[in-house]
Amino acid sequence: VFTDPTRIITAPSNMDVTVGESIVLPCQVSHDPSLAVIFTWSFNEHLIDFTKNGEHFEKVGGQDSAGDLMIRNIQLKHAGKYVCMVQTSVDMLSAAADLIVRGPPGPPEEVKVEGITDTTAQLSWRSGVDNHSPITTYIIQARTPFSIGWQAVSTVPEVIDGNTFTATVVGLNPWVEYEFRVVASNVIGIGEPNPPSRKIRTEEAPPEVAPPNVSGGGGSRSELVITWEPVPEELQNGGGFGYVVAFRPSGTSNWMQAVVASPDTSRYVFRNESIPSFSPYEVKVGVYNNKGEGPFSLMTLVHSAEEEPNRPPSGVTAQSFSAAEVDVSWEPIKGNMSRGRVLGYEVGKFSKHSQKMENAFTLLYSRNFGNVFSFSPIKTLFLNKNIYFSKKVKVESTVITNTTIIIINLETGTNPKANLKTDASLLSVDLIFMLHVFLVHALQNKNKISNIKFHKVLYRRNKHSSTYEVVTNITSVELSLPYDGDYIIEVKPLSDGGDGSSSEQIRIPKLSSTDARGSGASNVSTLSAISTIMLSLTARSSL
Protein backbone atom coordinates (compact mmCIF):
# COMPACT_ATOMS: atom_id res chain seq x y z
CA VAL A 1 0.00 0.00 0.00
CA PHE A 2 1.41 3.33 -1.05
CA THR A 3 0.90 6.48 1.15
CA ASP A 4 1.64 10.15 0.59
CA PRO A 5 4.88 11.26 2.30
CA THR A 6 4.70 13.45 5.42
CA ARG A 7 6.04 16.98 4.96
CA ILE A 8 6.59 19.91 7.40
CA ILE A 9 4.87 22.86 5.78
CA THR A 10 5.36 25.41 8.65
CA ALA A 11 8.55 24.93 10.63
CA PRO A 12 9.78 26.85 13.72
CA SER A 13 12.22 29.66 13.00
CA ASN A 14 15.00 31.31 14.97
CA MET A 15 13.68 33.99 17.32
CA ASP A 16 15.10 36.82 19.44
CA VAL A 17 12.97 37.58 22.53
CA THR A 18 13.16 39.45 25.83
CA VAL A 19 12.71 38.04 29.30
CA GLY A 20 9.04 37.91 30.27
CA GLU A 21 7.61 37.58 26.76
CA SER A 22 5.50 34.67 25.47
CA ILE A 23 5.81 33.13 21.95
CA VAL A 24 4.55 30.24 19.79
CA LEU A 25 6.98 28.03 17.77
CA PRO A 26 4.92 26.59 14.88
CA CYS A 27 5.20 22.98 13.64
CA GLN A 28 2.55 22.05 11.02
CA VAL A 29 2.59 19.18 8.49
CA SER A 30 0.81 17.66 5.52
CA HIS A 31 0.35 13.88 5.70
CA ASP A 32 -1.59 10.95 4.33
CA PRO A 33 -5.05 10.98 5.85
CA SER A 34 -4.76 7.31 6.67
CA LEU A 35 -1.78 7.87 8.94
CA ALA A 36 -1.80 9.14 12.53
CA VAL A 37 0.79 11.83 13.37
CA ILE A 38 2.63 12.16 16.69
CA PHE A 39 4.35 15.47 17.60
CA THR A 40 7.13 15.71 20.23
CA TRP A 41 9.43 18.62 21.22
CA SER A 42 12.94 18.67 22.67
CA PHE A 43 14.85 21.54 24.29
CA ASN A 44 18.65 21.42 24.26
CA GLU A 45 18.48 17.71 23.35
CA HIS A 46 16.11 16.86 26.26
CA LEU A 47 12.52 15.75 25.64
CA ILE A 48 10.05 18.30 27.06
CA ASP A 49 7.74 16.88 29.73
CA PHE A 50 4.58 18.96 29.31
CA THR A 51 3.11 17.66 32.55
CA LYS A 52 6.15 18.58 34.65
CA ASN A 53 6.94 21.86 32.86
CA GLY A 54 3.41 23.03 32.21
CA GLU A 55 4.10 26.42 33.82
CA HIS A 56 6.10 27.53 30.76
CA PHE A 57 5.49 24.94 27.99
CA GLU A 58 2.22 23.94 26.30
CA LYS A 59 1.47 22.05 23.02
CA VAL A 60 -1.16 23.96 21.07
CA GLY A 61 -2.77 23.76 17.59
CA GLY A 62 -5.94 21.79 18.01
CA GLN A 63 -5.53 19.70 14.79
CA ASP A 64 -3.89 16.35 14.02
CA SER A 65 -1.67 18.18 11.51
CA ALA A 66 -0.42 20.89 13.93
CA GLY A 67 1.82 20.49 16.97
CA ASP A 68 2.78 24.12 17.81
CA LEU A 69 4.74 24.87 21.01
CA MET A 70 3.79 27.84 23.26
CA ILE A 71 6.41 29.17 25.67
CA ARG A 72 5.01 31.48 28.38
CA ASN A 73 6.89 34.03 30.52
CA ILE A 74 10.26 33.28 28.96
CA GLN A 75 13.27 33.36 31.26
CA LEU A 76 17.01 33.43 30.51
CA LYS A 77 17.16 29.67 31.14
CA HIS A 78 14.84 29.08 28.15
CA ALA A 79 17.44 30.21 25.60
CA GLY A 80 18.70 27.38 23.35
CA LYS A 81 17.75 24.93 20.58
CA TYR A 82 14.17 23.66 20.15
CA VAL A 83 13.40 20.66 17.85
CA CYS A 84 9.94 19.61 16.61
CA MET A 85 9.82 15.88 15.83
CA VAL A 86 7.02 14.40 13.65
CA GLN A 87 6.46 10.64 13.50
CA THR A 88 3.99 8.35 11.65
CA SER A 89 3.95 4.59 11.22
CA VAL A 90 5.95 4.84 8.01
CA ASP A 91 8.20 7.95 8.35
CA MET A 92 9.80 10.43 10.80
CA LEU A 93 11.14 13.96 10.31
CA SER A 94 12.06 17.04 12.38
CA ALA A 95 12.69 20.82 12.26
CA ALA A 96 14.81 22.95 14.64
CA ALA A 97 15.06 26.62 15.72
CA ASP A 98 17.34 28.60 18.03
CA LEU A 99 15.82 30.91 20.67
CA ILE A 100 17.88 33.89 21.88
CA VAL A 101 16.67 35.43 25.16
CA ARG A 102 17.83 38.94 26.04
CA GLY A 103 17.75 40.06 29.70
CA PRO A 104 19.49 42.04 32.43
CA PRO A 105 23.21 41.35 32.88
CA GLY A 106 24.60 38.62 35.08
CA PRO A 107 26.51 39.44 38.30
CA PRO A 108 29.99 40.99 38.02
CA GLU A 109 32.90 38.69 38.77
CA GLU A 110 36.11 38.82 40.82
CA VAL A 111 35.06 41.83 42.92
CA LYS A 112 37.95 43.06 45.12
CA VAL A 113 38.23 45.87 47.69
CA GLU A 114 41.58 47.67 47.92
CA GLY A 115 43.11 51.02 48.82
CA ILE A 116 41.27 51.72 52.10
CA THR A 117 41.51 55.19 53.73
CA ASP A 118 39.37 56.87 56.40
CA THR A 119 36.68 57.94 53.88
CA THR A 120 37.43 56.04 50.61
CA ALA A 121 37.80 52.51 49.22
CA GLN A 122 38.86 51.34 45.75
CA LEU A 123 37.01 48.45 44.09
CA SER A 124 37.84 46.36 41.01
CA TRP A 125 35.80 43.73 39.16
CA ARG A 126 35.32 41.93 35.84
CA SER A 127 32.09 42.09 33.88
CA GLY A 128 29.78 39.10 33.86
CA VAL A 129 27.58 37.90 30.99
CA ASP A 130 25.62 40.65 29.28
CA ASN A 131 22.75 38.34 28.24
CA HIS A 132 22.74 39.66 24.67
CA SER A 133 22.34 43.33 25.69
CA PRO A 134 25.42 45.50 26.30
CA ILE A 135 26.09 46.62 29.90
CA THR A 136 25.60 50.37 30.25
CA THR A 137 26.09 51.07 33.98
CA TYR A 138 27.60 49.64 37.13
CA ILE A 139 26.17 50.51 40.57
CA ILE A 140 28.27 50.02 43.74
CA GLN A 141 26.32 49.30 46.93
CA ALA A 142 27.52 49.15 50.54
CA ARG A 143 26.17 48.18 53.94
CA THR A 144 27.37 48.53 57.55
CA PRO A 145 26.20 47.02 60.87
CA PHE A 146 24.22 50.25 61.37
CA SER A 147 22.50 50.52 57.96
CA ILE A 148 19.19 49.08 56.88
CA GLY A 149 19.93 46.93 53.83
CA TRP A 150 22.17 47.81 50.91
CA GLN A 151 22.53 51.44 49.81
CA ALA A 152 24.13 52.95 46.71
CA VAL A 153 27.32 54.92 47.41
CA SER A 154 29.04 57.74 45.57
CA THR A 155 31.94 56.93 43.24
CA VAL A 156 34.38 58.72 40.99
CA PRO A 157 34.30 57.76 37.26
CA GLU A 158 35.22 54.15 36.47
CA VAL A 159 38.48 53.24 34.79
CA ILE A 160 38.07 50.63 32.01
CA ASP A 161 41.00 48.36 31.09
CA GLY A 162 39.83 45.64 28.73
CA ASN A 163 37.22 43.66 30.68
CA THR A 164 38.37 44.96 34.09
CA PHE A 165 36.72 47.93 35.81
CA THR A 166 37.78 50.02 38.83
CA ALA A 167 36.04 52.74 40.86
CA THR A 168 36.79 54.68 44.04
CA VAL A 169 34.03 54.89 46.62
CA VAL A 170 33.99 58.24 48.46
CA GLY A 171 32.12 59.73 51.44
CA LEU A 172 32.59 56.77 53.81
CA ASN A 173 32.61 57.18 57.59
CA PRO A 174 35.92 56.62 59.39
CA TRP A 175 36.36 53.54 61.63
CA VAL A 176 33.27 51.77 60.28
CA GLU A 177 33.10 48.20 58.94
CA TYR A 178 31.79 47.98 55.34
CA GLU A 179 30.75 45.31 52.84
CA PHE A 180 30.48 46.07 49.11
CA ARG A 181 28.83 44.57 46.03
CA VAL A 182 28.47 45.60 42.37
CA VAL A 183 25.34 45.51 40.20
CA ALA A 184 25.35 45.80 36.38
CA SER A 185 22.49 47.12 34.25
CA ASN A 186 21.57 47.43 30.56
CA VAL A 187 18.61 48.73 28.56
CA ILE A 188 16.51 45.77 29.66
CA GLY A 189 17.02 46.13 33.41
CA ILE A 190 19.22 45.75 36.49
CA GLY A 191 20.95 42.44 36.97
CA GLU A 192 21.78 40.38 40.01
CA PRO A 193 24.63 41.57 42.30
CA ASN A 194 27.78 39.65 43.03
CA PRO A 195 28.13 37.97 46.47
CA PRO A 196 29.14 40.50 49.20
CA SER A 197 32.83 41.35 49.46
CA ARG A 198 34.91 40.64 52.53
CA LYS A 199 34.32 43.04 55.44
CA ILE A 200 36.78 45.92 55.72
CA ARG A 201 37.09 48.74 58.26
CA THR A 202 38.00 52.27 57.22
CA GLU A 203 40.82 54.06 58.99
CA GLU A 204 40.44 56.29 62.06
CA ALA A 205 40.07 60.10 61.98
CA PRO A 206 39.33 62.85 64.53
CA PRO A 207 35.61 63.10 65.35
CA GLU A 208 33.55 65.59 63.38
CA VAL A 209 30.16 65.50 65.12
CA ALA A 210 29.38 67.11 68.49
CA PRO A 211 26.77 65.55 70.81
CA PRO A 212 23.24 66.89 70.20
CA ASN A 213 20.57 67.99 72.68
CA VAL A 214 22.86 69.35 75.39
CA SER A 215 20.70 70.24 78.40
CA GLY A 216 20.49 69.57 82.13
CA GLY A 217 19.13 70.83 85.43
CA GLY A 218 17.64 69.18 88.47
CA GLY A 219 19.69 67.06 90.83
CA SER A 220 20.40 67.55 94.53
CA ARG A 221 21.57 70.58 96.48
CA SER A 222 24.96 71.97 95.33
CA GLU A 223 24.87 70.02 92.04
CA LEU A 224 25.05 71.05 88.39
CA VAL A 225 23.62 68.28 86.21
CA ILE A 226 24.58 68.33 82.49
CA THR A 227 23.05 65.93 79.97
CA TRP A 228 23.45 65.22 76.25
CA GLU A 229 22.55 62.64 73.61
CA PRO A 230 25.43 60.20 72.96
CA VAL A 231 27.12 60.28 69.55
CA PRO A 232 26.27 57.10 67.53
CA GLU A 233 29.10 54.61 67.09
CA GLU A 234 29.18 55.09 63.31
CA LEU A 235 30.01 58.80 63.87
CA GLN A 236 32.70 58.36 66.53
CA ASN A 237 35.42 58.02 63.84
CA GLY A 238 37.79 55.95 65.96
CA GLY A 239 38.59 54.13 69.17
CA GLY A 240 39.09 55.80 72.56
CA PHE A 241 36.02 57.99 72.04
CA GLY A 242 34.83 60.25 74.87
CA TYR A 243 33.40 63.65 75.83
CA VAL A 244 34.80 66.94 77.15
CA VAL A 245 32.28 68.79 79.34
CA ALA A 246 32.92 72.54 79.68
CA PHE A 247 30.93 74.87 81.96
CA ARG A 248 31.18 78.26 83.66
CA PRO A 249 28.88 80.55 85.69
CA SER A 250 26.89 82.71 83.33
CA GLY A 251 28.66 86.00 82.65
CA THR A 252 32.17 84.79 83.57
CA SER A 253 35.07 84.07 81.19
CA ASN A 254 36.95 81.06 82.60
CA TRP A 255 35.78 77.57 81.59
CA MET A 256 35.95 74.54 83.85
CA GLN A 257 36.36 71.22 82.06
CA ALA A 258 35.80 67.53 82.84
CA VAL A 259 36.59 64.45 80.73
CA VAL A 260 34.00 61.65 80.40
CA ALA A 261 35.76 58.61 78.92
CA SER A 262 32.75 56.40 78.22
CA PRO A 263 31.23 56.84 74.73
CA ASP A 264 27.80 55.67 75.97
CA THR A 265 27.59 58.13 78.87
CA SER A 266 24.99 60.88 78.55
CA ARG A 267 25.27 62.69 81.91
CA TYR A 268 27.81 64.53 84.04
CA VAL A 269 27.23 65.88 87.58
CA PHE A 270 29.47 68.61 89.02
CA ARG A 271 29.25 68.79 92.82
CA ASN A 272 30.51 71.74 94.88
CA GLU A 273 29.15 73.19 98.11
CA SER A 274 29.76 76.70 96.75
CA ILE A 275 27.26 76.30 93.91
CA PRO A 276 24.25 78.57 94.60
CA SER A 277 20.84 77.00 94.11
CA PHE A 278 19.19 77.56 90.76
CA SER A 279 22.20 79.42 89.39
CA PRO A 280 22.64 79.74 85.59
CA TYR A 281 25.69 78.13 83.94
CA GLU A 282 26.89 78.28 80.35
CA VAL A 283 27.50 74.72 79.16
CA LYS A 284 28.94 73.00 76.05
CA VAL A 285 30.05 69.42 75.36
CA GLY A 286 32.85 68.38 72.97
CA VAL A 287 34.23 65.04 71.67
CA TYR A 288 37.61 63.34 71.22
CA ASN A 289 39.10 60.00 70.18
CA ASN A 290 42.53 58.41 69.56
CA LYS A 291 43.14 60.73 66.62
CA GLY A 292 42.42 63.99 68.41
CA GLU A 293 39.69 66.37 69.55
CA GLY A 294 36.53 67.19 67.68
CA PRO A 295 34.05 70.11 67.81
CA PHE A 296 32.02 71.39 70.76
CA SER A 297 28.27 71.70 70.76
CA LEU A 298 26.57 75.05 70.75
CA MET A 299 26.55 76.71 74.16
CA THR A 300 23.38 76.38 76.21
CA LEU A 301 22.16 77.65 79.59
CA VAL A 302 21.66 75.15 82.41
CA HIS A 303 20.58 75.92 86.00
CA SER A 304 22.04 74.27 89.06
CA ALA A 305 19.82 72.23 91.35
CA GLU A 306 16.75 73.86 92.86
CA GLU A 307 15.81 73.91 96.52
CA GLU A 308 12.42 73.39 98.03
CA PRO A 309 10.17 76.48 98.24
CA ASN A 310 10.70 78.57 101.35
CA ARG A 311 7.46 80.55 101.26
CA PRO A 312 3.84 79.77 100.42
CA PRO A 313 1.52 81.71 98.11
CA SER A 314 0.00 84.87 99.55
CA GLY A 315 -3.43 86.37 99.32
CA VAL A 316 -5.24 83.05 99.56
CA THR A 317 -9.01 83.57 99.65
CA ALA A 318 -12.07 81.43 99.15
CA GLN A 319 -15.67 82.40 98.50
CA SER A 320 -18.80 80.32 98.44
CA PHE A 321 -19.86 79.86 94.84
CA SER A 322 -22.78 77.58 95.61
CA ALA A 323 -23.73 75.11 98.30
CA ALA A 324 -21.18 72.59 97.01
CA GLU A 325 -18.66 74.78 95.14
CA VAL A 326 -15.91 77.09 96.32
CA ASP A 327 -14.07 79.76 94.31
CA VAL A 328 -10.42 79.74 95.49
CA SER A 329 -7.96 82.50 94.56
CA TRP A 330 -4.36 83.34 95.41
CA GLU A 331 -1.50 85.59 94.35
CA PRO A 332 1.16 83.99 92.12
CA ILE A 333 4.73 83.94 93.37
CA LYS A 334 6.50 86.99 91.97
CA GLY A 335 9.94 88.51 92.05
CA ASN A 336 13.33 86.82 91.80
CA MET A 337 12.87 83.09 92.31
CA SER A 338 16.38 82.31 93.53
CA ARG A 339 15.49 78.82 94.72
CA GLY A 340 13.74 77.42 91.64
CA ARG A 341 10.97 77.68 89.06
CA VAL A 342 7.39 77.36 90.22
CA LEU A 343 5.88 74.28 88.58
CA GLY A 344 2.45 74.45 90.11
CA TYR A 345 0.12 74.92 93.02
CA GLU A 346 -2.03 72.49 94.94
CA VAL A 347 -5.41 73.11 96.55
CA GLY A 348 -6.74 70.67 99.11
CA LYS A 349 -9.50 70.28 101.68
CA PHE A 350 -9.58 68.45 104.95
CA SER A 351 -11.90 67.86 107.86
CA LYS A 352 -11.36 69.75 111.08
CA HIS A 353 -11.99 66.59 113.04
CA SER A 354 -9.75 64.20 111.10
CA GLN A 355 -7.08 66.77 110.13
CA LYS A 356 -6.43 64.60 107.08
CA MET A 357 -5.98 66.08 103.63
CA GLU A 358 -8.54 64.95 101.07
CA ASN A 359 -9.00 65.44 97.33
CA ALA A 360 -5.91 67.50 96.45
CA PHE A 361 -6.15 69.39 93.16
CA THR A 362 -2.86 70.13 91.33
CA LEU A 363 -2.81 73.15 89.03
CA LEU A 364 -0.30 74.11 86.37
CA TYR A 365 1.46 77.40 87.01
CA SER A 366 0.17 78.77 83.72
CA ARG A 367 -3.44 78.41 84.81
CA ASN A 368 -5.33 81.45 85.98
CA PHE A 369 -5.62 81.95 89.69
CA GLY A 370 -9.34 81.97 90.20
CA ASN A 371 -10.71 78.44 90.14
CA VAL A 372 -13.96 76.81 91.18
CA PHE A 373 -13.68 73.49 92.98
CA SER A 374 -16.60 71.14 93.58
CA PHE A 375 -16.78 69.47 96.98
CA SER A 376 -19.27 67.03 98.37
CA PRO A 377 -21.09 68.65 101.31
CA ILE A 378 -19.12 68.11 104.50
CA LYS A 379 -19.51 69.15 108.09
CA THR A 380 -16.41 71.32 108.31
CA LEU A 381 -14.35 72.67 105.45
CA PHE A 382 -10.82 74.02 105.54
CA LEU A 383 -8.73 74.98 102.54
CA ASN A 384 -4.98 75.33 102.26
CA LYS A 385 -2.54 76.06 99.48
CA ASN A 386 0.77 74.41 98.59
CA ILE A 387 3.53 75.44 96.24
CA TYR A 388 6.21 73.15 94.89
CA PHE A 389 9.20 73.24 92.57
CA SER A 390 10.67 70.40 90.52
CA LYS A 391 11.84 68.82 93.77
CA LYS A 392 8.13 68.31 94.61
CA VAL A 393 8.69 69.51 98.19
CA LYS A 394 5.65 71.45 99.33
CA VAL A 395 5.25 74.44 101.57
CA GLU A 396 1.75 74.88 102.95
CA SER A 397 0.00 78.17 103.27
CA THR A 398 -2.05 78.95 106.35
CA VAL A 399 -5.59 77.64 106.58
CA ILE A 400 -8.15 80.01 105.16
CA THR A 401 -9.92 81.84 108.00
CA ASN A 402 -11.56 84.80 106.34
CA THR A 403 -14.47 83.16 104.57
CA THR A 404 -17.74 81.66 105.70
CA ILE A 405 -18.92 78.81 103.53
CA ILE A 406 -22.36 77.37 104.16
CA ILE A 407 -23.07 73.81 103.07
CA ILE A 408 -26.60 72.47 103.18
CA ASN A 409 -27.22 68.75 102.97
CA LEU A 410 -30.63 67.17 102.55
CA GLU A 411 -30.64 63.56 103.65
CA THR A 412 -33.37 60.98 104.04
CA GLY A 413 -34.00 60.00 107.61
CA THR A 414 -35.26 56.54 106.65
CA ASN A 415 -35.88 54.78 103.40
CA PRO A 416 -38.88 56.71 102.10
CA LYS A 417 -41.92 54.72 101.17
CA ALA A 418 -44.63 55.75 98.78
CA ASN A 419 -47.97 54.65 100.27
CA LEU A 420 -50.30 54.54 97.28
CA LYS A 421 -53.95 55.03 98.19
CA THR A 422 -56.52 54.99 95.44
CA ASP A 423 -59.56 57.12 95.74
CA ALA A 424 -62.27 58.19 93.33
CA SER A 425 -59.91 60.75 91.80
CA LEU A 426 -56.94 61.10 94.13
CA LEU A 427 -53.53 59.47 94.42
CA SER A 428 -51.92 60.41 97.75
CA VAL A 429 -48.16 60.00 98.18
CA ASP A 430 -46.58 60.58 101.61
CA LEU A 431 -42.85 61.37 101.60
CA ILE A 432 -40.91 61.94 104.85
CA PHE A 433 -37.50 63.66 104.83
CA MET A 434 -35.05 64.96 107.44
CA LEU A 435 -33.31 68.23 106.61
CA HIS A 436 -29.91 68.75 108.22
CA VAL A 437 -28.11 72.08 108.11
CA PHE A 438 -24.35 71.72 108.46
CA LEU A 439 -21.98 74.52 109.29
CA VAL A 440 -18.52 75.51 108.15
CA HIS A 441 -15.84 76.82 110.45
CA ALA A 442 -15.50 80.54 109.71
CA LEU A 443 -13.64 83.67 110.78
CA GLN A 444 -13.05 84.03 114.54
CA ASN A 445 -14.72 80.67 115.06
CA LYS A 446 -18.08 82.10 114.18
CA ASN A 447 -20.80 79.64 113.31
CA LYS A 448 -23.67 80.49 111.07
CA ILE A 449 -26.82 78.65 110.12
CA SER A 450 -28.13 79.09 106.62
CA ASN A 451 -31.82 79.88 106.73
CA ILE A 452 -33.99 77.69 104.52
CA LYS A 453 -36.01 80.09 102.38
CA PHE A 454 -37.50 77.80 99.75
CA HIS A 455 -37.75 74.20 98.64
CA LYS A 456 -37.28 73.09 95.09
CA VAL A 457 -39.26 70.01 94.02
CA LEU A 458 -37.87 68.34 90.88
CA TYR A 459 -39.77 65.68 88.98
CA ARG A 460 -39.50 63.93 85.63
CA ARG A 461 -41.24 61.08 83.90
CA ASN A 462 -38.08 58.95 83.49
CA LYS A 463 -34.35 59.41 83.50
CA HIS A 464 -34.30 60.45 79.84
CA SER A 465 -37.13 62.98 79.86
CA SER A 466 -37.13 66.67 80.72
CA THR A 467 -37.05 67.71 84.38
CA TYR A 468 -39.71 70.04 85.78
CA GLU A 469 -39.36 71.99 88.99
CA VAL A 470 -41.63 73.70 91.45
CA VAL A 471 -40.31 76.18 94.04
CA THR A 472 -42.31 76.71 97.19
CA ASN A 473 -41.83 78.43 100.56
CA ILE A 474 -44.04 75.94 102.37
CA THR A 475 -43.57 72.28 103.17
CA SER A 476 -46.02 70.75 100.73
CA VAL A 477 -46.88 70.96 97.09
CA GLU A 478 -49.58 69.51 94.88
CA LEU A 479 -48.52 68.03 91.54
CA SER A 480 -50.76 66.94 88.69
CA LEU A 481 -49.30 63.75 87.27
CA PRO A 482 -50.81 61.53 84.55
CA TYR A 483 -51.45 58.08 85.96
CA ASP A 484 -50.02 56.15 82.99
CA GLY A 485 -46.29 56.75 83.61
CA ASP A 486 -43.45 56.29 86.12
CA TYR A 487 -42.23 59.41 87.90
CA ILE A 488 -39.04 60.32 89.77
CA ILE A 489 -39.26 63.02 92.46
CA GLU A 490 -36.49 64.67 94.52
CA VAL A 491 -36.33 67.74 96.78
CA LYS A 492 -33.61 70.37 97.33
CA PRO A 493 -33.50 73.16 99.96
CA LEU A 494 -32.60 76.70 98.89
CA SER A 495 -30.67 79.21 101.01
CA ASP A 496 -28.24 82.09 100.63
CA GLY A 497 -25.57 79.50 100.04
CA GLY A 498 -27.36 78.19 96.97
CA ASP A 499 -28.91 74.80 96.29
CA GLY A 500 -28.48 72.13 98.91
CA SER A 501 -27.91 68.49 98.17
CA SER A 502 -30.78 66.52 96.76
CA SER A 503 -32.81 64.06 98.72
CA GLU A 504 -32.81 60.46 97.65
CA GLN A 505 -34.92 59.95 94.57
CA ILE A 506 -38.48 58.73 95.10
CA ARG A 507 -40.06 56.70 92.34
CA ILE A 508 -43.82 56.83 91.77
CA PRO A 509 -44.66 53.69 89.82
CA LYS A 510 -47.00 53.58 86.85
CA LEU A 511 -50.68 53.00 87.63
CA SER A 512 -53.38 51.76 85.29
CA SER A 513 -56.80 53.35 85.10
CA THR A 514 -58.34 50.35 86.87
CA ASP A 515 -56.34 51.20 89.99
CA ALA A 516 -58.53 54.22 90.57
CA ARG A 517 -61.34 52.29 92.23
CA GLY A 518 -64.79 53.71 92.07
CA SER A 519 -63.84 56.37 89.63
CA GLY A 520 -66.72 55.38 87.40
CA ALA A 521 -64.97 56.81 84.37
CA SER A 522 -62.54 55.16 82.01
CA ASN A 523 -61.41 58.39 80.38
CA VAL A 524 -59.73 59.90 83.44
CA SER A 525 -56.54 61.49 82.02
CA THR A 526 -54.88 62.80 85.18
CA LEU A 527 -54.67 62.02 88.87
CA SER A 528 -53.69 64.46 91.56
CA ALA A 529 -50.67 63.70 93.76
CA ILE A 530 -50.06 65.51 97.04
CA SER A 531 -46.47 65.29 98.34
CA THR A 532 -46.31 66.18 102.04
CA ILE A 533 -42.76 67.02 103.12
CA MET A 534 -42.10 67.03 106.87
CA LEU A 535 -38.96 69.02 107.66
CA SER A 536 -36.91 68.75 110.81
CA LEU A 537 -34.38 71.54 111.18
CA THR A 538 -31.37 70.75 113.31
CA ALA A 539 -29.11 73.67 114.10
CA ARG A 540 -25.77 72.89 115.70
CA SER A 541 -24.22 75.56 117.79
CA SER A 542 -20.67 74.26 117.38
CA LEU A 543 -18.78 71.75 115.30
From TrEMBL:
Polar residues bias (residue ranges): 501-522
Transmembrane spans: none
Annotated PROSITE patterns: FN3 (PS50853), IG_LIKE (PS50835)
Domain Ig-like: 5-94
Keywords in alphabetical order: Cell adhesion, Cell membrane, Disulfide bond, Glycoprotein, GPI-anchor, Immunoglobulin domain, Lipoprotein, Membrane, Repeat, Signal
Molecular function terms, GO-annotated: cell-cell adhesion mediator activity
Subcellular location: Cell membrane
Membrane topology: Lipid-anchor; GPI-anchor
SUPFAM superfamilies with a match to the protein in the record: Fibronectin type III (SSF49265), Immunoglobulin (SSF48726)
Fibronectin type-III domain segment(s): 107-205, 210-307
Disordered, as annotated region: 195-220, 496-522
Gene Ontology terms: biological process: axon guidance; brain development
InterPro entries (UniProt xref): FN3_dom (IPR003961), FN3_sf (IPR036116), Ig-like_dom (IPR007110), Ig-like_dom_sf (IPR036179), Ig-like_fold (IPR013783), Ig_sub (IPR003599)
Entry keyword annotation includes Repeat: yes
Main location: membrane
GO cellular component: axon; plasma membrane; side of membrane
Superkingdom classification of source: Eukaryota
Name by which UniProt lists this protein: Contactin 4
Gene: CNTN4
